[in-house]
Structures are given as structure tokens and as C-alpha cells.
Design goal:
alpha/beta, six-stranded mixed beta sheet, disordered C terminus, Amidohydrolase, Metal_Hydrolase
């Protein structure tokens, strides 16, 4: 047998305990057929075999986000201005103002999650006055975690909020002395006010949603993600909002494997939803690229313990147990796997009471089920999860909300939130993920940094040494660990003969870079199903053809999602909408992002200083490179 593709001369961390390291792999028909040293693997080379020299680069299995929202995120990616990783509020507001100038009416400028004010040098959010000054006429919606949204006056007009608009249950519209909305929406703690307001904005056309979804998957490939489990989400209706992904799958254009859970959208009608889906959707229907994965993360609305750590812990209503029991009985009796959003230990105790009651009548007997988040779960409840055969999917939400949690509950509580090490010690399956895009960023390296360094994106040390994971263990949670959560642990999560051929070659060595440098790691080469889906740098010759960005005014065309973008993707020709000013100073002058190719150091040092490098009409900014200030 001759291989389709051989990668050799690498430094391969396989996450296979029986064969932990290798220098070469051979791939045939989308699976690994050899993993070992160069000499032995090269024996599988033939006339039609593609050979790629890895140049000793660190290579790992493809990363697997066990809880994200790719399907919903893909429909909107090209609409959204991402502040993920932006180092200063000054940079963020510059990006906002530039995008306002490009965005045609009646579209909005949206910043939807993936950032925290603590990542900014200024350690604060923008004010409503600053947002209104940057965008006097174009609607702007800025979502901050699940605690608030900031709307400018144009957005308030677009959504129709006036002094007569009532506050929804669990939400608050902040008002001025005259009773008029200021533009600040608060989840107190119900985040539905944030969801429902965002849903009022214009959507992309179907054609553009297809394009947007492809770009979002490409962005995930940029960071080495090859698989995700999609946890549904608010305003994500099945099957209507899945048509784009269905089409891309049929056309062979998925570049990320997707296992999807079904999320009920109708309060008080949840049992009807799941009964209907059970009759029309077969468990695990699909294939290795796109398949069903069960129910959740919303099973019943009364069980939603919203995770705004700015607000006190919510008390779930008394009716929750009865409603949850009906749905769980339905799912277990039909052998449907399920997952449930569960932030607080107090909620988890009540959920487990329901599960144990159902289990006495209808044994779970190995049926996979999941708690998502579980930030404050205690040891007793971890033991109860294990006894019922469940797993816990943890996400990097504390990397973005750790400061808020610490302020409310104290450093001692934050030091083991969530208690990942104890979960692993007690033998409970644990998978890592992000909960992107509306809370955390989709960038998995922020999550790996959080788990191993124990710090937030703002630098707060959450976990002492004894609570931090080794880099090896953290990586296992993002690979082999996450595979359990879609019942695919025998198929993926390691570079091993017989497993699906998903891997990524990194631009820096995860195991040797400094802790702070972990956050900046990207892929130089990503392979899914034995197919190259992303390549840059030394592997640029293998890159798939570029995909045009639609619409042409999309923020994706300029900022490429996670910051920094354009400097790592090569030269681009930008096409601006007619609304864009011809002499867009900041777009034309300040093109150097991240490391300076001329002077060889990080521009962040300049941005975080008091030198006015972001004033592009003044001396330092006009030079086009902030390093000139030093």
C-alpha cells in the first residue's frame, strides 16, 4: 500500500501513550496508516505520494473544541468586527470607526463577544459617548460577555427602544433621568435581552452566509482546529439554520468536523421539540465530517442558570425539576445523548437529583451525557457525575470573566473554578472548549494558556501551581479528551494508525515557548481528513485557493477575525465599499500589526505606551510604524 501523503522530518507529539513521539506520518484515504520515524514511514512513498518536509516543526493532533457555536457563528462571522486579542481600547475604537465608515445602510457594525476589557491596556470598556462619537449614524451593537450590550443612538432607533419599552423579565434597559434608554442593556441575569436585541439586526443573504461559514471554518483552521461539537444556541433553529452547513457538507466544503446538538428554542414547549426531533432525526446520523450528537445544551429554559458573574447567582424556579424530568425521561428512554448548561454547584445538585431519579426507573446504562461549564461544582457532585457515567465539558470562560468572579466570590473560590484537576483525579471524562463566539474567543490557544498558565487574558493569576495543568495534559483535553464528548474517542484525538487523519503543524513550539507566547500560537499547516485545508509560511505552496469575502465591506476583509490578522496571512488587495473614504489614513498608514518586519519587535509595546502612535495625523502615527517612537 502506498500513501497519499507523507509528512516527514517533524517533531510530532502524537497524544498516543503507546507511541508518544514520531518524526513522520503517512496518510491514506483520510486515515493515518503509519506513524514512526522517517525511514520506516518513507517506505510507503510511491509515484503519486505527496511529500512534505516539516522542517522539525512541532506537530500535534488537530484540536477539538468540545463546546462551541460554529453553526450560528458561521452565519454571522462576516458581519462581525472581532475584538478578540486586540491589545488596547484605542486600537478597538480605531477599528470600530474605520468599519463604521465602510458599512452601508441599513447594516450594523457588531462586536459580538470574544473580548474582555481586561485585555485592553486601558483596562476599561468604551463609554456610550465614545461609541456615539465614533458612529453618529450607523447602528452599533457591542456585546460584552453575557452581562451587557452597548448600543449607540442609531442602534436604539433601529431596534425601536423608547421610554415606553418595558424591561423584559431578567433584563434591564438602562434609562436616563428622563426615562429614555441610554444604550446600555443589562442581563440581570437573563441574557435573553441581549440575544433578542441582536436578532433584530439585518442578516446576510443565504449566499453570503455560505461564504461567511467557509471563512469562519478557515479561521478555525488557522488555529489548528479540525473538529468541534456545536452546542446549538439561542435563535438557532433546527433545521432552518442548519441548511448552510448541510449544503457545504454535501459539496465537500467543510474544513472542520462538526457534531451538533439540538437546542430547544421554545419555553414551555421543550418536550414537544425533542419528541419531534426524536421522530425525525436518528442518533448519530451523518458521517465523520457532519453528524448528530444528541440534545442540549438547553433542555428546558427553567434550568438555565445564566453565568453573568457580575450578577448574583440566580435561583432556579421550583417548576424546574418537573420540567427537566419530563425531557430527560424522554431522551433516556429513546437513548438520546444529552448535555446541559450548568454553571453553579447549587444548580448541579438539583439537576443530579433529577437524573438520579430518572436513572432509578430508566437506567442510563452507559448513555453519554454531559454537564457544560460546571465552574463551581464540588467534589460530591463530581462523584455523582462519575457514578452516572457522565462527562464534564469545561470552557475558557474564566479567562475572560475571572476578574468578575474573583471580585464577587474571592480569590480562594476562584483558585479552583472550575476544579479541573480534581475532575481528572476522580476519573471523570473532561473535554476542553471555548463556548465561542459570544463569551470567549474561538482561539483555542487562549484556552490552553488559561489551563496551563492559570491566568486570565488580562493577566490575573487565578490558579496556584498545584491547580494548573501541565501543557501535555491541557493539550490532551483539547484532543483525546474532547473526542469522548461526541463518542468518537476510538476515531480521533491522537496521531495513531487507524485514526482519522487530522493534525496541525504549529508556527511555534507549544512545549517550549514562554507562557505568554502560548496565546500567540497559530497553525502553519492544518490537515483534516488527510486534506490540506490551511497553509501559510513555509508551507504556503500547499495552501488551498483563497475564498473571496462577501460582502466586500465585511470586517473580515480587513481584520481577519482574531488579532493580529493581516501580517500573518500575506499581502492582500482590499476592496472597499463606496462609503469608504479614499484616503482612509489608518488603513493606508498603519498596516504593521504584531511583530515588526523592519525592526523585529512587538508593536504592542508602543501601543501600550503614552506615545500617541494611534493618532495617524500626528508625528509618530504618520510614520506608519509605531516602533519609530522608541
Amino acid at each position: 500500500m502506498k500513501a497519499d501523503l507523507i509528512l516527514y522530518n517533524g517533531s510530532i507529539h502524537t497524544v498516543d501513550r503507546d507511541n508518544p513521539a514520531a518524526t513522520a506520518v503517512a496518510i491514506k484515504d483520510g486515515k493515518f496508516v503509519a506513524v514512526g520515524d522517517d525511514i520506516s514511514v518513507m517506505k510507503m512513498a510511491g509515484e503519486g505520494t505527496t511529500l512534505i518536509d516539516l522542517k522539525r516543526r512541532r506537530t500535534i493532533p488537530g484540536l477539538n473544541d468540545s463546546h462551541t457555536h460554529l453553526i450560528r457563528g458561521g452565519l454571522n462571522f462576516n458581519l462581525e468586527l472581532r475584538w478578540d486579542g486586540v491589545p488596547s481600547l484605542a486600537d478597538a475604537m480605531r477599528m470600530l470607526k474605520e468599519q463604521v465608515a465602510r458599512t452601508p445602510s441599513p447594516q450594523w457594525v457588531r462586536v459580538v463577544g470574544g473580548w474582555s476589557e481586561f485585555q485592553f491596556a486601558e483596562k476599561r470598556m468604551p463609554t456610550l459617548d465614545e461609541i456615539n462619537a465614533a458612529a453618529p449614524d450607523t447602528p452599533v451593537f457591542i456585546l460584552h460577555l453575557y452581562d451587557r450590550a452597548l448600543l449607540n443612538r442609531a442602534a436604539l432607533r433601529a431596534v425601536g427602544y423608547t421610554k415606553d419599552t418595558p424591561d423584559p423579565p431578567g433584563g434591564k434597559i438602562q434609562r436616563d433621568a428622563g426615562g429614555e434608554p441610554t444604550g446600555l442593556l443589562l442581563a440581570t441575569p437573563n441574557a435573553m435581552i441581549l440575544y433578542s436585541t441582536l436578532a433584530k439586526g439585518p442578516k446576510l443573504s443565504y449566499e453570503y452566509q455560505v461564504n461567511s461559514s467557509r471563512h469562519f471554518m478557515r479561521e478555525m483552521n488557522r488555529f489548528g482546529i479540525t473538529s468541534v461539537i456545536d452546542a446549538g444556541g439561542g435563535y438557532q433553529n433546527f433545521p432552518d439554520d442548519y441548511k448552510v452547513i448541510d449544503e457545504l457538507h454535501k459539496q465537500g466544503q467543510l474544513t472542520v468536523r462538526i457534531a451538533y446538538n439540538l437546542f430547544t428554542q421554545r419555553p414551555k414547549h421543550e418536550e414537544e421539540d425533542f419528541d419531534s426531533w426524536i421522530k425525525s432525526v436518528k442518533v448519530y446520523q451523518g458521517d465523520d465530517m457532519y453528524r448528530h450528537n444528541g440534545a442540549g445544551e438547553m433542555l428546558v429554559f427553567s434550568a438555565a442558570d445564566f453565568e453573568s458573574f457580575v450578577q448574583p447567582r440566580p435561583d432556579l424556579p421550583a417548576v424546574m425539576e418537573e420540567e427537566l424530568e419530563r425531557v430527560v425521561r424522554l431522551l433516556v428512554s429513546n437513548r438520546w445523548p444529552f448535555r446541559l448548561h450548568a454553571t453553579y454547584n447549587e444548580s448541579i445538585t438539583r439537576f443530579l437529583n433529577v437524573f438520579e431519579k430518572v436513572n432509578r426507573d430508566i437506567p442510563f446504562q452507559g448513555l453519554p451525557w454531559i454537564f457544560d461549564h460546571a465552574e463551581t461544582i464540588d467534589e460530591k457532585n463530581i462523584e455523582r457525575v462519575k457514578a452516572l457515567g457522565g462527562g464534564i465539558a469545561i470552557q475558557s470562560r474564566m479567562a475572560y470573566q475571572g476578574e468578575y468572579f474573583t471580585d464577587r466570590y474571592g480569590e480562594a473560590a476562584a483558585a479552583h473554578t472550575p476544579p479541573v484537576k480534581r475532575m481528572l483525579e476522580m476519573g471523570v471524562p473532561v473535554g476542553a472548549g471555548s463556548d465561542a463566539t459570544r463569551v470567549s474567543s474561538y482561539n483555542p490557544w487562549v484556552g490552553l494558556y488559561w489551563l496551563s498558565a492559570g491566568r486570565t487574558v488580562g493577566g490575573l493569576q487565578l490558579y496556584p501551581d498545584q491547580q494548573r495543568l501541565s501543557r501535555e495534559t491541557a493539550l490532551e483535553l483539547y484532543t483525546r479528551g474532547s473526542a469522548w464528548f461526541s463518542n468518537e474517542q476510538q476515531k480521533k484525538g491522537a496521531i495513531k494508525v487507524g485514526m482519522l487523519a487530522d493534525l496541525t503543524v504549529l508556527d511555534s513550539d507549544y512545549f517550549t515557548v514562554t507562557e505568554e507566547e502560548i496565546k500567540g500560537i497559530e497553525a502553519d499547516l492544518t490537515i483534516v481528513d488527510g486534506r490540506i485545508v490551511y497553509a501559510k509560511g513555509d508551507f504556503n505552496q500547499w495552501a488551498p485557493p483563497p475564498i473571496p469575502i462577501l460582502p466586500d465591506w465585511s470586517p473580515t476583509a480587513i481584520y481577519n477575525g482574531y488579532h493580529p490578522g493581516s501580517n500573518k496571512l500575506g499581502a492582500k488587495t482590499y476592496k472597499f465599499a463606496e462609503k469608504a473614504p479614499v484616503n482612509d489614513i489608518s488603513a493606508m498608514v498603519h498596516q504593521c500589526i504584531g511583530n515588526c518586519g523592519v525592526h523585529g519587535h512587538e508593536h504592542d509595546k508602543a501601543r501600550r505606551s503614552d506615545v500617541p502612535v494611534n493618532n495617524y495625523t500626528a508625528f509618530w502615527g504618520a510614520l506608519g510604524c509605531s516602533c519609530f517612537a522608541f
